[in-house]
Amino acid sequence: MLQKIREGDQGSFHEFYNLYHERLYQYIYMYTRSEWLAEETVQLSFIKIWEQRKKLSTEYSLSTQLFRVAKSTLIDLLRKNKIREVVQLPHPEAHPETLSVITAIEMKDDLKRVMKTIHDLPMMQQQVLTETRINDLSHKETAALLSISAKTVETHVTRAVRRLRKTLSVFF
Question: Which of 15, 70, 88, 168 maximizes the CB count within 10 A of its CB?
Fold first, then answer.
């Protein structure tokens, strides 16, 4: 099914959608207790899978990639809605006893990828991203700290995030 979807087979994608739509919705709803967030996350996740179908990895199952995309999508939606709760989403197919080990390994691997990608950014983008996203400074505070304008901070953040998304889109 993965290969067919990568090749653009809409029938296989519809089959995949029908197979996982309800499961993903219930999973997201279980953690958020929000019909809107669950529905929005599911729809955006399937859209992202279809739009990025040529980049889907053959090393991971389609369901694993879907749930990773859903996790990232949910986090994005929560950020956009200014909800600052941390929602830990374990993979639904993992056994409880192996869940913490799998989660720890995945988180460590994800962190390594993100840190390497940040390290590969131009120096100013690294500094601005670190101050705004890691140290939680506002654009104005970051601008004062780095002696640049707030608009320049915004530009650097936008470029850095765009590059991170492009580079890490296969993994998240």
Answer: 70
For the CA atoms of 163, 124, 85, 103, what is the dihedral angle to 10 degrees? 60
**Residue type (1 letter), 41:** T
Q: Exposed, middle or buried: residue 82 (CB in 10 Å: 0-12, 13-18, 19+)?
A: exposed
Give the pair of three-digit tokens for residue 126.
């690294």
Instruction: Let me know the angle formed at the C-alpha of 154 by 145 and 49, rounded to the nearest 5 degrees.
Output: 130
Residues 6 or more apart whose CB falls under 8 angstroms from that of 93 comprise 63
CA distances from residue 126 to 27, 69, 107 in whole angstroms, order as listed: 35, 24, 21
* Structure tokens belonging to residue 132: 């705004």
Query: What does the pLDDT average to over 89-118?
Result: 65
The dihedral sign for the CA sequence 58, 60, 63, 69: negative
Q: Please write the tens of the pLDDT for every residue from 115-153.
A: 888 888 899 999 998 888 888 889 999 999 999 999 999
Give the CA dihedral 147, 84, 102, 50, nearest 10 degrees. -90
Give the max Cα distance, the chain. Answer: 54
